Amino acid sequence: MFQNLVDKMSNAFKLFRSKGKLTENDIKEGMREIKLALLEADVNFKVVKAFIAAVSERALGADVLESLLPAQQIVKIVNDELIKIMGESCSKLNISSAPPTVVLMCGLQGSGKTTHSAKLAAYYKKQGKRPLLVACDVYRPAAVEQLCVLGKQLDIPVYFEENSKSPVEIAQNAVSFAKKNQLDMVFIDTAGRLHIDEELMAELVNIKEKTDPAEILLVIDAMIGQDAVNVAKAFNDLLSITGVVLSKMDGDTRGGAALSVRYITEKPIKFIGTGEKLDAIEVFYPDRIASRILGMGDVMSIVEKAQQAYDEKKALELEKKMREQTFTLEDFLEQFSSLRSMGPLDQLLGAMPGVNPGALKDAKIDEKAIDRVEAIILSMTPEERTNPAIIQASRKKRIATGCGMKVEDVNKLLKQYDQMKKMMKQMSNGSFGKFGKFKLPF
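RE: above sequence
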């Protein structure tokens, strides 16, 4: 995410860090580099102009010019102004006091409306809501079928009408259906077009008038860059959108849409799509995105993913096993399964402080290594998983044959398991500085 922008911003900051004291000319030169970085990232020119003006004004103040660490002060100023441009605080959906909460999803064809309608419904289902998906795209071939398939995968009901070609009637009837069946959130998936046209907008206005949505969310493909501003402005002028969902953020190396849309429309970015899986959606936090752009990582997102992957009961059980030295290969396998549920490994590493996402571009992170770990452990008997000490040569050969791998692979896994046990023993003894060279198998 934002790889190109991160690299260019990092190069711009090198101009500041290479000098102990900064002059006005040093700051102007650095600002010119930051300006170019933003323009090359497809950030809207008006946004770039306002951003550079705000940063320059603060950077030329006495707090920076007379500071012992002026480079750090400038990084802080840039961070603050990035957060301001993107909205300062996160903004979740407004939940109606009288259910159901109606959410109207709109956007151009191919932006990801249908998928993100399902992702949002799944997100709020996890929050304890009872969502309904509504198929109002009666024009695109297989659009209704696509939503029904997604609904089935997520165990979320989908409302559609085979004999109706009126999206307005379908939306109205869906809201009535939700009320009767005590469903408290309604996500209306509407039709898109390849470009903005009067017919599309008139239809959306009619649906808005008949369903009185609490939220009108515009789904924008983050990778369209400058066009994101034009699309957002057109939809906002006619519909008064309440927020934006940026899809395909995991493929956006520039960042232009994320940095421009909020400033131009004055409407918050509420969610971002971060992958193809149906749980790959996150609340948009301006401060976390700013931190990523400046190469400072995103620790809070990693912590939240870890909290979702590990429940409290399992964490306490693991702590007890670490203390009592009863950590088995079953537990070892469970830790890798939990790691996998946190998302792609390259995304997790890219969000670590001090890790430049650009440095991971050519790194070979073997996602299938966890599959191999699982295959080896699942080829063992329950007794072998509980007591690996009994796994001698003949057993290793049988395990390797069972999972289609070599004895060397089994030996490597057992060695890693022993290293983890040693590390956990040191942690339980409070010896955090003696971990040695433990390596994960990827």
